[in-house]
Amino acid sequence: MEEQLKQLQDEAVMKAAAAQDLKELNDVRVAYLGKKGPVTEVLKGMGRLSAEERPKMGALVNVVREAITKAIETKQVSLESEAIQKQLAEESIDVTLPGRPVKLGGPHPLTRVTEEIEDLFIGMGYTVAEGPEVEQDYYNFEALNLPKGHPARDMQDTFYLTPELLMRTHTSPVQVRTMLKHEGKGPVKIICPGKVYRRDSDDATHSHQFNQIEGLVVGENIRMSDLKGTLDAFAKKMFGPDREIRLRPSFFPFTEPSVEVDVSCMCGGKGCSICKGTGWIEVLGAGMVHPNVLEMAGFDSTVYSGFAFGMGQERIAMLKYGVDDIRHFYTNDLRFLQQFSVHE
Ligand code: 2U9
């Protein structure tokens, strides 16, 4: 009996050590230590032993059972750690592999132009002011020296929402609102970028919605020469240090005198298709703020004077980047937009 148990132990320990995986090891456990296994069988037969032999035999069975259990446990630990090592090896990440390329976007050309203009004017001490796109007739027209029935209102065909509410036709109402907030005290030095709306038929050079930046400076002793110097700095920053500006007389109801501003063409005056042979390209409108506008916004026009200017970012971007159709800015064709990417 003793011999038989020893043999059983050797056999079980050997089989446990030889198990290839956890399932095989469990089969060994069930085969030797399970309810129907030989060790249990021996324990069951203990009743037949004499009172002398029983404790001796019991102790031996326990030793055998513990030895088998230990062999199984030791093997289990080694199989489990092998499994983890295998999994770690299989699932390891090669951090040296190159990543998948991420496609980077870039700012829209109109955003680039707007931010470039903002940067220039912020650098000259201006602040950026914004206002509503749905505007009151009063701020959009009336306060800008354009009373109801004024013929110049026809120059800007308007989307009316109600007789008193409209989609703003320029960003000038933002300047009016800002001046009113100043309650007659200068200086005011702002630029107002934003979307504006006109009842135009869309074509290569017109859009019913476009972007404008207007500037306004109100203070004591503000003169036309201040306007000219400011616009010269603008032209050189946007188009290059060799560019010049020229002012031509014009008319706007909200400025007096009013001018149209041309920048010299990059052909250097030789004449090309962009300047249509003239050597000059029209880029913006400007003038000295009309005394009526100053007074309506609460400023004493005998003390204060000011200049204002306005331009369309689309026109600036078309000239700067050589774009021949304003609709390219709104159709979002990636082949167009990607040409302005700063990440190529
Ligand atoms: C106030 C007083 C004066 C804004 C001005 C222009 C001249 C001008 C056009 C350029 C091309 C609009 O985008 S465009 O079609 N603008 O020529 N704008 S002076 O004058 C103001 C504005 C506000 C209180």
From TrEMBL:
Mg(2+) binds at E256. Residues 111-319 form the Aminoacyl-transfer RNA synthetases class-II family profile domain. It is found in: Cytoplasm. GO terms for molecular function: ATP binding; catalytic activity, acting on a protein; magnesium ion binding; phenylalanine-tRNA ligase activity; transferase activity; tRNA binding. Its cofactor is Mg(2+). GO terms for cellular component: cytoplasm. Binds 2 magnesium ions per tetramer. It is an enzyme of class 6 (ligase). Its EC number is 6.1.1.20. It catalyses: tRNA(Phe) + L-phenylalanine + ATP = L-phenylalanyl-tRNA(Phe) + AMP + diphosphate + H(+). Keywords: Aminoacyl-tRNA synthetase, ATP-binding, Cytoplasm, Ligase, Magnesium, Metal-binding, Nucleotide-binding, Protein biosynthesis. Its main location: cytoplasm. Signal peptide: none annotated. One of its GO terms (biological process) is phenylalanyl-tRNA aminoacylation. Tetramer of two alpha and two beta subunits. HAMAP family: Phe_tRNA_synth_alpha1. Belongs to the class-II aminoacyl-tRNA synthetase family. Phe-tRNA synthetase alpha subunit type 1 subfamily. This is Phenylalanine--tRNA ligase alpha subunit. The lineage of its organism: Bacteria, Bacillati, Bacillota, Bacilli, Bacillales.
